[in-house]
Task: inverse folding
């Protein structure tokens, strides 16, 4: 099999319930910069809705290279969402505790699943 030189990109979907007073556009601006690790964050404002208790549900897409350590991305996400007073976090459809370890483990699980899917596709 011929390998290409392009880095593989992973995109994860984050759904978060945050405090309504947190400015949505500034969620990731206060977090430590992820520029050197090639993280791209896109907020999906059309999916943002207000809940009964006044909190906001926000959906985000974060894309990064496979070579970026899960801990770096997990720390980036934790710093951004912790500052926004997040009440609930869902990563790719699975509810996750708002701790650096839980977020990092969820990202590592996603990477492993994608690796296994790639290996299965290569065998066929």
Result:
């Amino acid at each position: 099999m011929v390998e290409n030189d392009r880095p593989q990109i992973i995109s994860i979907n984050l759904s978060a319930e945050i405090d309504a007073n947190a400015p949505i556009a500034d969620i990731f601006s206060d977090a430590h910069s992820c520029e050197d690790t090639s993280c791209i964050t896109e907020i999906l404002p059309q999916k943002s809705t207000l809940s009964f208790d006044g909190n906001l549900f926000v959906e985000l897409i974060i894309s990064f290279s496979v070579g970026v350590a899960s801990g770096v991305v997990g720390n980036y996400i934790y710093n951004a969402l912790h500052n926004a007073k997040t009440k609930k976090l869902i990563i790719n459809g699975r509810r996750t505790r708002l701790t650096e370890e839980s977020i990092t483990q969820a990202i590592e699980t996603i990477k492993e699943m994608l690796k296994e899917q790639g290996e299965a596709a290569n065998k066929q």
Summary: The CA atoms of residues 7 and 65 lie 6 Å apart.
